[in-house]
Structure formats: C-alpha cells, structure tokens
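User: Predict the structure for this protein chain, please.
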Amino acid sequence: PGVFVEEGSERDALTKLLLRRGCLPIYLSRSEVDLYYNGYCNNILWPLFHYVPLSFESKLSETKNMALQWAAYQNANEAFARVIANAYRPGDAVWCHDYHLMLLPQQLKEDYPSMKVGWFLHTPFPSSEIYRMLPVREELLLSVLAADLIGFHTYDYARHFVSACSRILGFEGTPEGVEDNGNFTRVAAFPIGIDPGRFTQALETERVQAHVTELRQRFQGRKVMLGVDRLDMIKGIPQKLLGFEKFLSEHPEWRDRVLLVQIAVPTRTDVPEYQRLTSQVHEIVGRINGRFGTLGSVPIQHLDCSLAFTELCALYAVTDVCLVTSLRDGMNLVSYEFVACQSKNAGVLVLSEFAGAAQSLGAGALLVNPWNVNDMAAALEDALTMPEPERRERQRQNFTHITMHTAQAWADTFVSELNDTHVEAELRRKRIPPQLFPSRVLDDFSRSRHRLIILGYNATLTLQTDSSKKQSRAGVLPGKPIKTQSRMHPVSQECLQRLCDDPTTTLCIFSGSERNRLQQTFAHLPKLWIAAENGCFIRPPLEGKHSKLGGSGNNKWITMVETSNFDWIESVQLVFDYFCERTPRSYVETRETSLVWSYKYADPDFGRQQARDLLQHLWTGPISNAAVDVIQGAKSVEVRPIGVSKGAAVERIVSMMGECGSSSLVEEIVDVPPVGNGGGSKPAGNDPP
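Assistant: Here is the predicted structure, written as structure tokens:
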C-alpha cells in the first residue's frame, strides 16, 4: 500500500497474486501517490492527528500545493469508491480504515444508502482545538458521519471526535454518538489487539530458543532494557534517552549493570525533519555512551534497522524492562508483543500515558509522562528494583488482557456492532418521515386534479448568506438578535410564480419568521397563502379564488391565538435577557406572539447547560401559571401561546378552503398519507422541507 507500481508484467503479476488472496488492487499514478499518500495523508492529516501543528511556509505556492494534495485525496477516495461499487453485493458490509479514506463513507452512501459502512481510525483523534486548524475540517467530518459506525482505539479519541462534530458542525453529541436532524451515527471505542498465540508459539521453536540462549550469554550479568520504535517524531526516543541518562547520573551503581537496547527502524529518510531527528538521536546516544561507557561495555546499543520476527521474539523474552515512551500514539502494540513474550521472565512494562495502550495495560504497567525526565528516571529505578511477586502480578494482569482482547476479537466485535447498528438505523429511519422522491412527486402531481403544496421558507427557498463561518468570524453581541440576511433563490422565485398562476394548484408558505417580513418578501405573489410565526398568523391570498377569505384590503391576517393576554412576555423577556448576559454569543429574538432565546452561535456544551438552567427558571417563575408552551429546539428555547402549531394552522387553512368551495381538494387531502414532516410543533426557526 502506498507504493507506485509501473504498468507492465510486474503490476500484472501483483494483481494476480492479490486476487488469489481475495484482494482488489487500486493503482494510482505516480503523481497521485505523491500528492495523496505522501502529501495530504502523511504531511497534513497524520501530523495533525498526532498533535503536530500544520507547518506554515510563507509562500503562496505552499497554499496551492495543499490544494493539489486535497484534490488528489478526493480523487483517490473516489477511486476506492468505484472499485467497491463494482464488487458490492446487497448485504455486504464495508469497513473503511484510517485517515487515508475519510471521504469514502459518504461517497459509498451516496450511491448505496442502505449499505453497511463502518470506519475505524488507527491513530489518535485530536481535540477539537487542534482539529479545527484543518482547512477542510467540515468536509471530512461530514463524510465520516455518513458511516453507520465509527470506531476508535480509546474512549478519549471517540470523545474528541464527538466534541469536534459538536463544536465545528453544530451537531448534537451524545455518549453514544452524533445526531443531526434525526440522523444518528454511533461512535464507540474498540481497542485493537494482537495475535498472542503467534508469539507464544514462536517462543517454543528451536530457532527462537537458540536466539534466547545466545542473548542471555551476551547480556549475562546485566539487566536489559528494550525500546522498539519507528524512528519517528511521535515515538519519544530522545525523551527516552534523556530519562535513561538522568537515571544513570543519579544511580552510578547501575552503570555497569544495565543495558538499553534501542531498535529504531528508519522511516521517511528523505524528509528533512526525520533526518534531523536521526542526527539528534545519534548525538544523544554518543554522548551517553561516551560519558558512562567503559572499554568493556557501553550503556546503550542502538540499531538503525529492523529485526527478524524470531530475533525480536527472543529479544522480548530476555528483556527485563520494556520502555514505550510515545509522545502520542494511537495504540502502540509493541507493549502487547512484549507482554506476550514475558510469560516466564515477568519483565516490567514502562508505558507512556500518551499511548493508547495506557488505557488497556495501565493496571499492570508503570505509567510515565515522557516529557518529565525526573519521572522517567524514577520509573526506571522502580522497574529495576521491583519485587518478583509484584512483577508477576502485573504481568498476569497484562497477559490476561491481551489474551482476551485479541485482534480477532477486535474485528469480530466491530463487525457485530456494525450489523447491530445498521439494524437499529433501519428501525430508526422507519420512524422518520421519508424523503420525497422527485419521480413519485411528479407522477402524483400530473395525475391529480387539484394540488395543495406546503413549503417551508428558511433554508428551503432561501440562499443563506450569513453562514456559520461568517458568524463565527464576525462575532455576535450578547442580547442582539441576528437578522438572517437570506434571499430567495432565483429559480425558486420563478417556480413559485408558475405554481401560483396554475388554477389547479394552491401554494402555502410556512415559516417561523414575522408576518411583516414574509409579507414584504412575497409581495409579488398575491395568490399565495402565508402562515407566519409557526402558524400563529395566517394570510389568505390577496387575489384568486380564495381572496374573499379573511379581512378586507391588505389586512387579511387571521390570528390563531387570543392576543389579549400576553402578560407573561415581560417576565420571560427578563429571564431571557439574564441568560444572554450569562451566555456569550446568545441572543433573544422577539416576535409578535413569542420569544426565542437562541444559543446556536455560543459554545455548544455551555449553551446546553445554560438552556437547562433557563428552563428551570421559567417553570418555577414567570410561566408557572401562564397559558404557554415551551418548545426546546436544537439550540433554542421558545415560549409561545398554548395551542400554536403548524398542524393546527394546516387544519384551519384546509377548513377555510372547504368553506370557499374547494371541497374536492379537501376530500383528496383527507385521503393522501402525509409525506415529510407532520403538523406537530417544531422548534423555532426550523421550517419544514
């Protein structure tokens, strides 16, 4: 994976080999490999997910290069989607892995909405404050959320992902996952494991036993510490060496009795940052060996290479202390491999608290902060002087965990959860009104003699010009309502005009907006029904067959509630203003018959907490005896007269149309099953689609 293969006999032979193993190859061009794999994946996503900030070069060419890498990332994911689509059969499950394929879930779901799709990240997922630096942060999150199940190694990573969705996308985060307008994506932790049997069986072979005997003779009389890492910035090799140096300087009695074997497998040797890291590690090793070494021995044996599996198993078996000092690691299975090979020796595992394995093996390991050199040195002393009963008890706990949570158990658990989650999603979708299919709507529209079309306004017929991005840049003054600068889509205006001119079609616009604003917006459509403030006010058409309904002239608005008793508004306004002061970037929207407190631009977690407090203030104070309904929206709280709903407004409109002689239309409406949102109460500002 990630390697360019030239077309020809070599690629053909590789394709045949992969097909025999049940694998479908996806070949990318040399430039795509460079821009996608080496570029966007390893230069942008991988560092950021490991808490390494994006590098910034003060050159416009760097910005253009990132755009090219992003385009290559999109194209590569589309290539995967095409191959999967050709091989997919109904009932198959698709499991997408890692940051290389974050766009794949959405691409698959677009063509196959019922496909079972899971996505698992093998690296850490950073906190939202780090992740939000990514220029295409929304696109990646939205695409991943198209999956049915999202998995991470630890609960911390899952929590960070849910928080990012909540703070960046404005979605509702729960302990089980992420919810958005009825769509729910499950997010959970699935700690990966290894195949411990492979290591325990290898230890019984003659070849490994011969290596063990050889190593024991070579290290005779000395305690062996072992580090096995990629020569990578996040593995904490310099911190490990500095902690070992601190230990030797504070405990001279151990200088001839302990040996650190560091295996550093070179990676990305052509990258300048990795070249500097290699030089730094070699410099520290040379300094420590020169300071504490003798003619007969040195305290550190450093190898810039990988070992064969049998040699590695033997080295694990003779090790007394294994050092894993990652600065940030998704899981780090070196710790698992060490435990699997320590059934006889019962060595001590010194494990970084920043490695994902710390969540699983923390009970039996010595957890350290690799940035704290003193802490590292103290942990090394504790590991070397630990009594044997304690060592064996720690080893027993760790070994029990790795034998129960194997790689196979991890895969089985994820696939089982994916199947269950998909079934739950199907049941959930049955409770959600289905989407309108254009072909079905057109057929019904063409066959019917009379049509009543009810449309929402905000986010249905409008182009939003004040996106959340612009709001976040501009800031919001507490207590100051934000007037949405929305305008009608040009195509929508033309379509509405044509529908209104059709004598067999009745058109109605529903909105939570004020009636004056709606009347101005649709002044050019006098044949239109308008329901304002979620059905509190209804205006029949000014022209046409229903123009005789309502009052005379332009004052044709019909009020659905009693307007004489609004004593509660002043006290509710005081409560809302108080919570605007307590909640930065929240605001109050005052309407003729209702008040709305919105926190959609505030911190989502803090806003939800304040909303709960606000509801308690309302129920115990100003509205305890008032005839009002409290509607808690996604990010708002609305107080309005009791009985106001879009459903009641629809019933009133249909009844008025029947009084005007449209009995045939009313009869057809009664027999038509509801499609889309019903007529129940909806949160403020959420118009029906």
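The chain is about 45% helix and 15% strand.
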